Amino acid sequence: MDLSSLGNGDRVQIKASPSDPTVDGMYIIQNITAGPSFDVVTSQTFPRPATINFIKKAFGAGRLVIEGNIIELVAVDAGSAPTNALAFGIGDSNGGTNPSPEAPDYPNGDIIIRNNKVRYLDGAFNSGYLGYGSDISGVKNLQTLNNVIDCAPSNPLRNARVGAATYFNNLTTKGVLVQGFKSDAPTKTYDELQTQADDALVMAFAEW
Question: Domain extents for the chain?
Fold first, then answer.
């Protein structure tokens, strides 16, 4: 690609030839100079010299706040719909079918999703409906907090290939905690203050 089109803060995918795990990955450009040349921060203290096969600009959100929205999903029955409805989605394919490599950086930067309400259109609800609250991937730092989520599928707040994810106080309209879910291997739900307090209470009774 034409390196003159790059600037400080741009995200690029760099791949060595032959492929080298100490070099291949996603980087943020720093200190671009005439020539052109630029610096990047690597995960290796002293990376090996490498022949660069290609440098590809990645398009993503550097910093994004999604706040104060009311989203009404179309109530579609799972038995007849080929795809899931989705309130908030951020991906990392960058126009391709395969995810962009993350380390040492990510296609997307810092994402905050807070104080939103997600429900079905006109308050309709059925346990067989599709519709997730969020599905986020390729993000360096994700915070999802204080949202009201009324979605039928289990684990309606999902993420994959994320550097650090924090979920806090996401509830249904009935006040039931909605935990974040890591959908790539190894799958898990994210602990937060309420789940830690519940676990401590159970352990206290077990020791009593």
Answer: 3-58, 63-195
Strands 37-39 and 30-33: antiparallel
Residue 118 class from Cβ within 10 Å (0-12 exposed, 13-18 middle, 19+ buried)?
Answer: buried
pTM listed for this prediction = 0.85
Q: Which amino acid is at 13?
A: Q
Write the DSSP symbol of residue 23: T
Is residue 21 within 8 Å of residue 53, measured between CB atoms? no
Question: Which amino acid is it at 137?
Answer: S
49: its two tokens:
């010299």
Cα–Cα distance measured from residue 1 to residue 132, given in angstroms and rounded to the nearest whole number: 37
CA distance 61 to 64: 6
**Residue scoring higher pLDDT (171 or 95):** 171
CA distances from 113 to 101, 103, 192 (A): 23, 23, 16
